[in-house]
Amino acid sequence: MSLSAIVLTLNEQKHLPDCLASLAWADEIVVFDSFSTDRTEEIARAHRARFIQHTFANYAAQRNAALDSLQADWAFFVDADERIPPPLAEEVRAVIQKPEPVGWWVPRHNYLFGKLTLHAGWYPDYQLRLLKRGQARYDTERHVHELVRLDDVTGYLQNPLIHFNYETVSEFLSKQRAYTRYDAGILHAEGKRAKPHNFILQPIRQFFWRYITLHGWRDGRHGLRLSLFMAYFQFMLYRCLRDLNASELPENRN
What we know:
Layout: E1 3-9, H1 16-21, E2 28-33, H2 40-46, E3 50-53, H3 59-68, E4 74-77, E5 82-83, H4 86-95, E6 103-106, E7 108-112, E8 115-116, E9 127-132, E10 136-138, E11 148-150, E12 154-156, E13 161-166, H5 169-189, H6 198-213, H7 220-246
Parallel strand pairs: 1-2, 1-4, 2-3, 6-12, 7-13
Antiparallel strand pairs: 4-9, 5-13, 6-9, 7-8, 10-11
Helix pairs in contact: 5-7, 6-7
């Protein structure tokens, strides 16, 4: 069974060299690029990766297009800011020889602000990344937080990949704001409405879940800060939803 490692890119010259170096064991590396303007192509070719450029519509469509470009039996999606340690590479090599499952969830070690974060919801953080070609497609209705549709069962790998997630607090906050707006749009499309108690109860529940249930307290101040941030963005989620609900009122329509 052959395997292609796929890295989606857009101006990833900072992360790409170490990522591709950690994938040297794969039968093929495909850098599936959204027309980068930095040294991404040069770096990809220096690592003997197959370099493909494809116009970006959304993540689901881009991943489906990458799958369509393959000849290998298996696809392994890796982000540019992720690294594959040797134990995980060996495990991947072993499981793709099995007739099933046709998809494998991979745990992640997330580094936030330079710190390995094992609690508050950031571990094991399973990602469905190892897919048997021809039996997996991404749901085109889910543009972010992509959803894989599989023809058969999935399994769980034991060895984690390494994810250098957010280097700075400002980067984290910016990304969470974007996710919050997107998630509010989904709730709005489903007909959900923001109710007064949501602004109080949902942030409290989110903090309790991350800090107590998911043991965020084990990460000290780091875990406390992350739990508070995520509670705040639960508040912002319902504020965004409230604004979307208000935009439908007759007096706010043009």
